[in-house]
Amino acid sequence: MKKMPFPGAFRRFLRFSRIMPVVFVVILQLSPVPARAAGSGEGEWEASPPAASFQKGTLSFQFLGGALFSPAPLAARTDVFDYGQVNLRLGRVFGRFDHCGGSMRGAVEGIAELTVSRIFKGFGHYFAGGTVLVRYNLLRTGSRFAPYAQAGLGAVYSDASKDRSQTAIGQSFEFTPQCAVGLRYFIGRRWTLDGELSFQHISNAQLAERNGGINALGGLVGFTCFFDMPDSGRSGALPAAGNRVSERR
Question: Which of 32, 105, 173, 235 is most buried (CB neighbours < 10 A)?
Fold first, then answer.
């Protein structure tokens, strides 16, 4: 059996995805960091957002909506395929890490996503499916801004393949590797306002004769609600910091 060539559109997706870390660093540098109040210590910071919202075991629900457009700049030249998208995400924090001597902290989050899209320009009418994502959140001392970067793989069902005049989408079942960078702003201990820049690829890994693929870039906005947050007596909650805050109160 002759080996199928690696799709050019997917190669361009991998190349374009390398730009995302640069965008992430830019977002990090632009997010303001207010000076700490006099006398504030480690305990106060751990008990305030965003640190308190990213303890190990914390669950979150995120709602995002927006639009993506193909062909994406700098990516492979693919068919015009523009769509509005709504994402529902359930996340769980699996670990915390210190950076730069403790002035920054990272939190790794696993996410299960349900996605629904309405195609408003191009071929087909809709696609819907699920995605598994891994996200890295970066927390900065004294800031309510929390930038993140994520990547994942999903699968969708679409009616776009019924249009035989196009070669991008060849079957009803397609894969969706993707990456994104985003920024959260904490308006409370449990709530954030979110913005995200997302790059998505759609193709079928040569499972069908038509597999030109889609590379789309766009923006999403929404909110996150954190819940089932561990208290100071549960695993991953940094009890020493929490106890010091309680004692001062």
Answer: 105
